[in-house]
């Protein structure tokens, strides 16, 4: 479940902060560690996710992303696109648990969070044999005042503007990245915060022979949280360079450097009991900070490298989404979400792109959530998506996804 699942930890953090503001009294589910000044809170949930694909199911769910990843949906006219349907998939991989602590210090309250789930694919142990999957680290960080050190959501992600979907990934316009980082946030006015961060890049561990990122990704985020909602403006700078290596196929190429810039503006507002969220993000070289960029470029998300000249080309990709949540009753709510991503032709090597490259992505989600009890909820959703390719003298290709999602969510307490 998008909001309940991915945001549960964030809500827990807010609960701890609220408890501290009340004088340090433990929050629900939190208890004092005997013999210490620290408190600890355990949280988590069990979840079953179900997908039924009527069109556009990608292959390899056992060892890949089973949630919506529109860029890998097969072309409608391909053999994979015509495979038998509908196809159904059940998984409990998103079940998770975590713990948080807080300890008073002379410099303020020290908070620690550790969280993981089981959504790491395992082609050997999944449904072929015992339905086992790998444990995956999600969050591992400490916070003290405005300082955060460790792994958590990228500074480029605005959780307040993330639409609520049953689908675990949601629209491909989000920055679904959790990075090891160092971030510092300062207050710059009434309800205004400014965050600056250095975050892990893809570095030489990715395709070392053809592309290197030798400095961390640099982030800035200005956010405003008035009574009516939230606003956020963000930027990320990524430096790509083709270093001269001591050996290998590309040792004689000249050193090349290219700087990528990703920008985003997003916000949310309350309309009575309902909520409206929206975001626009993109830029030259936004790369992995826009999920739908993942399939663009031949040397990584949004990056192409010309082996003959050593030239680095960064693709400009832009995406926008909007989501509306309507609350029918205290236990029933529905969401309508729309998203669109478009790719500007980078003309790698001066050549226009053909139907081997996707040029745009259209997505829509409509869903309803129903609360069975205080800590149990079910959700059902119809998700539609379609990508189209460039043409430029080749037949345009399309890949269409039509999927029904369902989730059964049971929190620990």
Query: Could you tell me the strand content as a percent range?
Result: over 45%
Number of domains: 1
* Helical residue percent band: under 10%
Order of helices and strands: HEEEEEHEEEEEEEEEEEEEEE
Order of adjacent strands in the largest pleated sheet:
2-4-5-6-7-8-9-10-11-12-13-16-17-18-19-20
CA-based gyration radius: 22 Å
Going by helix content, strand content and strand pairing, the class is mainly beta
Predict the CATH topology: Porin
CATH fourth-tier homologous superfamily: Porin
Total beta strands: 20
Q: Indicate the overall shape.
A: globular
Largest sheet: 16 strands, antiparallel, barrel
The CATH architecture is Beta Barrel
- Terminal CA distance reads 17 Å
- Low-confidence blocks of residues: 4-23
CATH class: Mainly Beta
Mean pLDDT: 87
Assembly status: single chain
């Amino acid at each position: 479940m998008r909001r309940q699942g991915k945001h549960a930890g964030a809500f827990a953090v807010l609960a701890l902060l609220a408890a501290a503001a009340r004088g340090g009294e433990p929050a629900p589910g939190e208890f004092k560690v005997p013999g210490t000044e620290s408190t600890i809170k355990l949280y988590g949930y069990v979840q079953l996710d179900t997908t039924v694909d009527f069109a556009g199911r990608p292959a390899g769910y056992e060892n890949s992303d089973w949630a919506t990843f529109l860029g890998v949906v097969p072309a409608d006219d391909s053999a994979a696109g015509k495979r038998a349907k509908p196809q159904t998939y059940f998984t409990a991989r998103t079940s998770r648990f975590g713990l948080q602590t807080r300890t008073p210090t002379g410099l303020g309250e020290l908070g620690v969070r550790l969280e993981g789930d089981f959504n790491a694919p395992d082609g050997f142990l999944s449904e072929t044999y015992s339905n086992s999957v790998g444990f995956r680290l999600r969050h591992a960080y400490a916070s003290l005042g405005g300082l955060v050190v460790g792994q958590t959501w990228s500074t480029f992600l605005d959780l307040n503007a993330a639409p609520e979907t049953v689908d675990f990934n949601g629209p491909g316009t989000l920055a679904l990245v959790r990075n090891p980082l160092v971030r510092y946030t300062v207050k710059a006015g009434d309800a205004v915060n400014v965050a600056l961060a250095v975050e892990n890049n893809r570095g030489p561990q990715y395709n070392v022979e053809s592309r290197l990122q030798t400095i961390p990704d640099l982030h800035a985020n200005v956010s405003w949280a008035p009574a009516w909602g939230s606003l956020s403006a963000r930027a990320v700078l990524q430096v790509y360079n083709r270093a001269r290596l001591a050996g290998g196929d590309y040792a004689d190429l000249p050193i090349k450097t290219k700087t990528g810039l990703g920008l985003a503006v997003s916000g949310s507002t309350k309309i009575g009991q309902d909520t409206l969220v929206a975001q626009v993000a993109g830029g030259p070289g936004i790369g992995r900070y826009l999920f739908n960029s993942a399939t663009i470029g031949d040397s990584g998300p949004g990056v192409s490298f010309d082996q003959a000249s050593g030239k680095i080309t960064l693709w400009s990709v832009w995406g926008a989404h909007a989501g509306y949540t309507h609350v029918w009753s205290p236990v029933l709510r529905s969401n309508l979400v729309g998203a669109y991503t478009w790719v500007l032709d980078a003309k790698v090597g001066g050549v226009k792109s053909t139907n081997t490259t996707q040029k745009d992505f259209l997505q829509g989600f409509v869903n309803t959530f129903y609360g069975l009890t205080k800590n149990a909820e079910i959700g059902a959703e119809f998700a539609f998506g379609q990508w189209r390719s460039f043409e430029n003298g080749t037949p345009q290709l399309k890949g269409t996804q039509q999927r029904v999602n369902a989730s059964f969510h049971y929190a620990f307490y």
